Amino acid sequence: MLNLRSLSARGVLTVLGLLAVVVSVPAQSQSAPVSTPPGWYSGDTHVHMQQCTTWNDLTLPEIDAQMAASDLNVTAIQLWCSRWTPPDYYLSHYASMITGTEDPLSSAERRMQFGLEVSGFPASQFGHVQVLNAQTGFFPWDALYPGPILDWYRDALTGYAHVSWYESYDTVPIYGSTNGPYLAPIDAALGAIDFVETTRVEPDPALVGVTWRGLYYKLLNAGLRVSLAAGSDNSCFTQEIGDSRTYALIDSEPLTYGRWCDAIAAGRTTVSAGRGRFLDLSVDGVGIGGQVALSRPGTVSVTATLTLAPGVSERGVLHVILNGRDVATLPYSVTDGGTTTLRTPVVMADSGWLAARCEPGAHTGATFVFVADRPIVRPADVNYWLSYCDALAGELSIFNVPEVEGELLARIHSARQVYATLANFTKPMPSGAAAYGCSSPSCDGPITIGLNAPADQAFELTCLNAPPNAHGLLVLGLQADLSSSQILGCTPLVASSAPFMTIPVTASPAGFASVPSPLPPGKQFRAQFVWLNQPGCSARGPVCASNGLAVAP
Predict the structure, then answer these.
(1) Distance in angstroms between the alpha carbons of the first and the last residue of the chain
(2) CA atoms of 208 and 30, how far apart (whole Å)
(3) Which CATH superfamily includes the segment(s) 43-271?
(4) How far is CA 1 from CA 260, 385, 409, in A?
(5) Other CB atoms closer than 10 Å to residue 515's CB: what's the count?
(6) Is 71 left (phi over 0), alpha (psi -120 to 50) or beta?
(7) Using an 8 Å Cβ cutoff, are 156 and 76 in contact?
(8) Cα–Cα distance for residue pair 212/324, rounded to 1 Å
(9) What is the DSSP letter of 150?
């Protein structure tokens, strides 16, 4: 059972998170930047020109000079409400700087663009939202929680800044009037955010059990897709621009700010404390952010490669991680940079995610492995988030926003439905139902159909991992199609030669859908979700689909 901390402990999570920013990995010294493979570019998702202790802002030439000194390719210059700039001052002096275009000082090697950190605004107590690649700096600043702001910036790159969370499964902190990422698990389930950000890549040992990994790992283990990013948050703390950084693999040259943001959204990231390390990962030849499909349980070949810049002297440990736990480690010791490689087979008994990290100071984003079309869901994690939804709903009064409690409760309820559907896939299929056939996957992997109650009761047909916001059909018919025929890249699993019906359906931003069965309990039928694919996923065909479901009470 989750232990909700009392209001008298208000702020502990935030204080620990901010301490994690102040304490940094010892600086590396090297004569040259680290070498990265083609297409990888370094950036800082959390750069401020406004400072905590003075009215004097950093100038763009000063930021550009710091970028050059730290071998940084991209900076997200995040405007905010500092102690010197209340909302009205932000609106009159800073909001117009955010235009969705790169600053004219940008060059081919160094790209700069203004964005927004929701810090110092009323919604900040639920967590600081980061908005990159925004088209405007004018937004519903007086919103009392992040939801309306995330809805406003639906086409931008969004996430939660400097996150920290308990790594254990028995404690959930809820305090009012702080900036912990309290709604991050809700907004991740709703598909409203793209990433979570750390300002401390290697957690400080003194902050036992409170790290960014406590949030990131639990979200991935619950079956959600969130990317990993890192930034320095240079305004109030001792870090310099680029001390925590994100490397992102763009899909085509040349480098632009927009392509770098797109790479973060796609999960093609690896993060590092400083410019001296680059950590890469390959799973059966598939890189970070990709997915591997196995038709049955089996073994994948994993390669973690740590590159240190010339001049770096370091001892550490290289790890390969499966679902947040070590499956292989390799101690290393170098005196003048170079490459350390850990190769290991990993047995995949079920679907899961793999990553690499080194201590000190680097961590890759996830690569996903799908076994027999099964979704990636760990019972402990999805049940944790179910309990968290219930706990948060019961403690909203702590945040003192009675005007929007109804909206927040509705949002929490919608997120809970997603977690409940994910939890159903950790259990045997309800009586009277059985899956058959294989998914015709989207670019994000296999799509899974299910139902949330026994077939002799009223139930809903559910779908996981559909293309975000996609339009599609729920197809129901009397007979299965087992011919393995292909139509527009999709394998139909409901026969059109027998009576059938279709129901229009739209996926959520997180790729979730739920449809009440149009047939009364006790009826036999076959079902499949069919979706229009994302425009950028044309290599798989214009249509994708779930596996099939046979309902026979």
Answers:
(1) 35
(2) 31
(3) Metal-dependent hydrolases (3.20.20.140)
(4) 41, 12, 21
(5) 17
(6) left
(7) no
(8) 12
(9) H
What dotted CATH number matches 276-376?
2.60.40.10
H-type alpha helices, 43-137: 60-69, 87-93
Quick: pLDDT tens for 202-250. 877 777 788 999 999 999 999 999 999 999 999 876 678 999 999 999 9
**In this structure, how many other beta carbons lie within 10 angstroms of the beta carbon of residue 142?**
10
**Residue 197 amino acid letter:** E
> Quick one: tokens of 79?
């405007």
Residue ranges of E strands in 215-268 = 227-230, 244-249
Per-residue pLDDT of 466-480, as tens digits, reads: 999 999 999 999 999
What is the per-residue burial (b if ≥16 Cβ within 10 Å, else e) of 209-218?
Answer: ebbbbbbbbb
Helices and strands of the chain, counted as H and E runs: 9, 31
Task: Tell me phi and psi for residue 189, to 5 degrees.
Answer: -65, -30
Phi, psi of 83 (to 5 degrees): -60, -20
Residue with token string 């943001």:
261
343: CB partners within 8 A, 6+ apart: 301, 302, 303, 304
Structural tokens at position 403 = 């005007």
Residue 4's SS3 state is strand
Q: What is the mean pLDDT of each run of 10 residues along the chain (553 residues)?
A: 37 40 42 88 96 85 94 96 86 96 93 96 95 98 98 97 90 58 97 96 79 96 97 81 96 96 98 95 98 96 97 95 98 95 98 96 97 95 96 92 97 96 93 94 92 92 95 97 90 95 96 94 94 79 94 86
Is the pTM higher than 0.85? The answer reads: yes
The residue behind tokens 């309820």 is 413
Residue type, 234: N
The CA-atom distances, in angstroms, between 449 and each of 295, 337, 501, 504, 552 are 17, 49, 17, 15, 15
User: What's the CATH number for 433-551?
Assistant: 2.60.40
Going by C-beta distance under 8 Å and a sequence separation of 6 or more, which residues neighbour residue 529? 447, 449, 461, 463, 466, 472, 473, 474, 475, 505, 513, 545, 546
Partners of residue 112 on adjacent β-strands: 75
**Residue 238 burial (10 A CB sphere; 0-12, 13-18, 19+):** exposed
Q: What backbone phi and psi angles, to 5 degrees, belong to 240?
A: -95, 160
